[in-house]
Amino acid sequence: MTRTTAFILKRHITAAETGRTACDYLAEHSALSRSAIKDAMNKGAVWLGRWNGRSRTRKRLRRATTELRDDDILELYYDPAVLALEPPAAALLAREARYSVWYKPPGLLAQGTLYGDHCSMLRQVEKGVGAAYLVHRLDREAGGLMLFAHDGAAAGRLSALFQGRSIGKRYRLQVVGDLAAVRGRRGLIDAPLDGRPALTEFQVLSYDPAHNLTTLEVRIGSGRLHQIRRHLDGIGFPLWGDPRYGRGNKNDDGLKLVAVELVFQCPFAGMERRYRLAEEHIGF
Q1: 79, 139, 233, 242: the active-site residue
Q2: Do the Cβ atoms of 186 and 180 come closer than 8 Å?
Q3: Would residue 242 show up in a list of annotated catalytic residues for this protein?
Q4: CA 127 to chain centre
Q5: pTM as predicted
Q6: Splitting the chain (284 residues) into consecutive groups of 10 residues, what average pLDDT does each group show?
Q7: How far apart are CA 122 and CA 118, in angstroms?
């Protein structure tokens, strides 16, 4: 059976219920078929909380034959609409010893939700190269370069680079209006966001008068929530296709914001790494 409405099932396993497989247990208590349960497991919608002797861990459960133990907490976050989604495919651009660089297409989440992770960038990286750790994020609507670590120590060192603003990030975007006519071809937006300093440096590449769109590249000296989108909208030039900020800037093609370059001193090789996205992935 496949249910057409979303629901959440949480069960605290008792001693009398131990020894059964997670798949059989969920099929009995959810009225879903075993094949539907397996699909939900594969796509990251099932969670297992388990005491490890010191604390309780909580992880996605993908193995249908896992036997339940006393005091386990089994959770199913079932949404058929989410499970039916077909995510766009990411692309591996560079594979280093302890990290890799990928292209994230627009519309792909950086990481999953309680209802699944098959539509997430992190899961695609895991399936492509094995263990993966998220060290930074891109908005779902944006595309571009993302860096992933492949062991815990590497994740810590790369995350420290992002937190210490030691990674140069460059983005290409389109905004509504003739930015150069008002602000010049180069400029700096210095406007705090959420009570914290935020700097956005821009350089105009071109202006399309037929569509009233300016193409530019920006560098940010900080990483506030939706910083680029908020800063450009704040000076009267909202991003083309932004579903959240701006007026008169919506379109059917999506947000025109792409992370095109990452530059940093590799904490392992001790040399500068520069990764630039090919024009074919940028599209404008």
Answers
A1: 139
A2: no
A3: no
A4: 15
A5: 0.87
A6: 82 94 96 95 97 90 96 97 94 96 94 96 95 93 96 96 91 97 95 91 97 96 86 96 92 93 93 94 88
A7: 9
